[in-house]
Amino acid sequence: MTIDAGRPCIFCVPDRALLCENELARAFYDVNPVSPGHALVVPKRHFRTIFDMAAEDYAACFALVRELREILVEKHAPDGFNVGVNCEPAGGQSVWHAHVHVIPRYTGDVERPLGGVRNVIPWKKSPA
Predict the structure, then answer these.
(1) What architecture (CATH level 2) is domain 2-108?
(2) How is residue 117 annotated by DSSP?
(3) Domain map of the chain by residue range?
(4) What phi-psi label fits residue 116: left (phi over 0), alpha (psi between -120 and 50 degrees) or beta?
(5) DSSP readout, 58-107?
(6) In whole angstroms, how far apart are CA 57 and each of 25, 61, 79?
């Protein structure tokens, strides 16, 4: 698939090594990781957001999230994970191909991790 001015979609034609894949999805490291081991799971077919995906592509992506978790545990030994999806500009999406972030978390990587993804909206942060 091509996007903006005929450039190929960076997730339709990834230029990085795969960590794992199945028939309908693939996983690879994020080029701008927020933590060691931060990886992405993307459907092989092009969809704008996860809400546009066919049921079988959605299921394949989340099956791969589980497989990827095991690989990241072995390679990076994290203490926890965030799994998240950004959809549309207001949701923080910046690449117009559906993808799932699998972000290893480590004890002490942030001062107060309580509340997890709620902390992306500063005024919704969990109390101390």
Answers:
(1) 2-Layer Sandwich (3.30)
(2) G
(3) 2-108
(4) left
(5) HHHHHHHHHHHHHHHHHHH--SEEEEE---TGGGT--SSS--EEEEEE-T
(6) 7, 6, 29
Say if residue 116's pLDDT is above 60. Answer: yes
Q: Is 43 helix (H, G, I), strand (E, B) or coil?
A: strand
Integer Cα distance of 43 and 50 in angstroms:
9
Which residues are designated catalytic? Answer: 99
Tokens of 71: 């690989």
pLDDT in tens, 29-57: 999 999 999 999 999 999 999 999 999 99
Give 41's DSSP letter. E
pLDDT 10s digits, 70-104: 999 999 999 999 999 999 999 999 999 999 999 99
SS3 of residue 5 by DSSP: helix
Closest CA relative to residue 40, chosen from 15, 9, 19, 63: 19
Could you tell me the pLDDT band of residue 110, with boundaries at 50, 70 and 90?
confident
